[in-house]
Specification:
One of its GO terms (molecular function) is ATP binding. By secondary structure, this protein is an alpha/beta fold. Helices cover 32% and strands 21% of the residues. α8 packs across α9. Bound molecules: adenosine-5'-monophosphate-propyl ester (PRX). Adenosine-5'-monophosphate-propyl ester binds next to α14, β24 and β25.
Length: 692
């Protein structure tokens, strides 16, 4: 504990600069700084004065409390929610040390609550019934809708009643495969209301990926829609679901019901295929049910949702989150990291198919009675000004997005931004990958007119909520740094041996103790949970990320250190892409690595060896890429296929990815020692074929 406090206490020794003009301006004027780390960007005095956490000292006091007395700190916050029955003692129990037995994390056990009740009924009772809960903006400008908290509750209750009627019970899984319609958060909340466990599958995943998830969690019902427009394209989601359901049925698991929302905005003159007895139109049945529905009270440790994510081995992992701790954690992180106030209008561009959409489109904001913008479309349609058009239209004050979007809009030119007022903006946010300082500056100076702090939030599907994040107004920022830990979070940087390193350093990012929003297991595979996250560095949760800490105690995330790549903020396991590639009949072997990509952060670079006698061709390249799109989804399509006569392997047959990464990024003078390879000549052959 004392080390921890020492790390954050460095904050108090920073020059006090409220209102001071940032060194950032020096950069814009072309003067160079000694290093990025020295660039401090101060919040204005006016901003800090109105913030929940107005100073480093206030943060230090709260942080200290949260570390020294986690039970007391989190109980006080949890008491602001509705509990049918208060939790028992101890408030939390944990074992993060694999050497001491099974890994276990529990918070508020014995407490009975319901997160849907806390998002809706509780806020309505406190006078927010007529407040807008959701603004929906369709793909086409001018197409929109909205729901007040009262109306949202009614919609949720109707669907909850329908689900109960078809036999969905507490603990049953429900798979949701929907685009960003209001029906997506409605479906999540309806499941939560009746204690069902939702598993949202991002609607960009292929039929095969969807089938794999369905077969793993065995839902009674799958909720989808007929089609969706994305930009100028139409995607027939129901066809994808049909294929997935057929695949799953062939493998022995048949879903009882496929509830299909008729998404009018996407209606074309194409008839949706229908399987009588299994398929039902949402609009035909759900609207007939009563608009009130009793709540199923669940234990704080009962599961709330499953969300599949990629790991370093082939099969996606079902990350399981429970109810009570997740509720308290998402609500609290949302409030502080975005300095949320009841008058804010909040827009997060993430899709509910990812964790960001769970914690910071649906649960975190609604628990705070916030008004949330849900956007169905694409950020560059009809043109690259769409985001700022939406910001002005709804008077968005908090805008949360991913670095990849910032970089792609940055390339389109400033006029798309400056054409719009953006005066409503107060806070900007970034998530999904490290934000490079130049994108940070563009976002800060141009989009936010040098007035809006940026919350660069580091966290993961597994962590449930923010772990390392700025608190706007509390301390100066450094472009590209996620800064300091959230309350209750004890990040540590360890070396290869798992020894904590102090002061200025870099190494592997771990967490030392549990926090309420932590995931509790991998669905159906607690052992994999323990080996993946708790065995590399016994005693700690290992994040899979590298991190350094500078002399002022700021944290700088440096990316994944395992075989996971991060493409446009989407997490992809190299093994998943490899297994898709080798399923192609003409592919003998594949090795996939990440390479730097100007817009996506990382791109997918695949080395492929072909079956004996098969020649390379452009058609084959296309067909390999198509195989990956079909098996995983378009977002996982390789950017580059590098034909390989052979792969660099050790004598024991292990592929040396270190060498492949260097070849992929053309750092040919940094190949290192290749003498341990079974056949060192493959390296030269690969280099010769690099740009063919
Ligand atoms: O590498 C880190 C990166 O995204 C990974 C988690 O991916 P996922 O579970 O899909 O969740 C994404 C949204 C929370 C992390 O291991 N990452 C996420 N946020 C940041 C980040 N890297 C640097 N800075 C961030 N702000």
């Amino acid at each position: 504990t004392s080390n921890h406090l020492r790390h954050v206490e460095s904050l108090a020794t920073l020059p006090s600069g409220a209102g001071r003009i940032s060194k950032l301006n020096a950069v814009i004027l072309g003067e160079s700084l000694a290093s990025e780390e020295d660039d401090l960007v101060f919040p204005s005095g006016d901003f800090s004065r109105q913030a929940h956490v107005p100073s480093p000292q206030k943060y230090l006091d709260m942080y200290k409390m949260s570390i020294e007395d986690p039970a007391g700190f989190w109980s006080d916050i949890a008491s602001q929610f509705y509990w049918k029955q208060r939790w028992g003692q101890p408030v939390y129990s944990e074992n993060l040390d694999i050497r001491k037995g099974r890994i276990k994390i529990e918070w508020f056990k014995g407490g009975m609550t319901n997160i849907c009740y806390n998002c809706l009924d509780r806020n309505i009772e406190s006078g927010n019934g007529e407040k807008t809960a959701l603004f929906w903006e369709g793909n086409e400008p001018g197409e929109d809708g909205n729901l007040t908290y009262n109306q949202l509750l009614q919609r949720v209750c109707q669907l909850a009643n329908y689900l109960k009627h078809i036999g969905v019970k507490k603990g049953d899984a429900v798979v949701i495969y929907l685009p960003m319609l209001m029906e997506l958060p409605i479906a999540m909340l309806a499941c939560a209301r009746i204690g069902a466990v939702h598993s949202v599958v991002f609607a960009g995943f292929s039929a095969e990926s969807l089938a794999q998830r369905i077969m793993d969690c065995k839902p009674k019902v799958v909720i989808t829609c007929n089609a969706v427009r994305r930009g100028s394209k139409i995607i027939y989601l129901k066809d994808i679901v049909d294929a997935a359901l057929a695949d799953s049925a062939q493998n022995g698991f048949a879903v009882d019901v496929c509830l299909t929302y008729e998404n009018c905005s996407a209606l074309e003159k194409v008839k949706t295929k229908w399987q009588e007895g299994r398929d039902t139109w949402w609009q035909d049945v759900v609207t007939k049910y009563p608009t009130t529905c009793d709540v199923e009270w669940v234990d704080a440790e009962d599961p709330l949702f499953l969300l599949y994510t990629s790991g370093s081995t082939g099969k996606p992992k079902g990350v399981l989150h429970t109810t009570g701790g997740y509720m308290v954690y998402t609500a609290t992180t949302f409030k502080y990291a975005f300095d949320y106030k009841p008058s804010d209008i909040y827009w997060c561009t993430a899709d509910c198919g990812w964790i960001t959409g769970h914690s910071y489109v649906t649960y975190g904001p609604l628990l705070n009675a916030a008004t949330v913008v849900v956007f169905e479309g694409a950020p560059n349609y009809p043109d690259s000004g769409r985001c700022w058009d939406i910001v002005d239209k709804y008077k968005v004050s908090i805008f949360y997005t991913a670095p990849t979007l910032v970089r792609s809009l940055m390339r389109e030119g400033d006029e798309y931004v400056t054409r719009y007022s953006r005066k409503s903006l107060r806070i900007l946010g970034s998530v999904g990958e490290p934000i490079n300082p130049s994108a940070w500056r563009w976002f800060y100076n141009l989009v936010g007119d040098s007035r809006c702090p940026i919350s660069d939030t580091w966290w993961q599907t597994e962590t449930g909520g923010f772990m390392i994040t700025p608190l706007p107004g509390a301390w100066p920022q450094k472009p590209g740094s996620a800064t300091f830990p959230f309350f209750g979070v004890q990040p540590v940087i360890v070396d290869e041996k798992g020894v904590e390193i102090e002061g200025e350093c870099s190494g592997y990012l771990c967490v030392k103790s549990s926090w309420p929003g932590a995931f509790r297991t991998l669905y159906g595979d607690h052992e994999r949970y323990e080996t993946t996250y708790f065995s590399a560095f016994p005693g700690y949760y290992f994040s899979g990320d590298g991190c350094s800490r500078d002399k002022d105690g700021y944290h700088w995330l440096t990316g994944r250190v395992d075989d996971v790549i991060n493409v446009s903020g989407h997490r992809i396991g190299t093994a998943e892409v490899e297994s898709a590639l080798v399923s192609h009949p003409q592919c003998a072997e594949a090795a996939v690595v990440g390479v730097e990509h100007e817009v996506k952060g990382q791109g997918i670079y695949a080395f492929v060896t072909l079956v004996e006698g098969v020649p390379y061709s452009e058609d084959l390249r296309k067909s390999l890429v198509l195989t990956v799109r079909n098996q995983i989804g378009a977002f996982a399509a390789p950017d580059k296929i590098h034909w390989a006569p052979g792969l660099p392997k050790t004598r024991s047959g292990k592929i040396m990815r270190r060498i492949l990464r260097k070849i992929a990024s053309r750092q040919l003078d940094e190949l290192g020692d290749t003498s341990t390879l079974a056949d060192p000549s493959v390296v030269d052959q690969l280099i010769a074929l690099a740009d063919s």
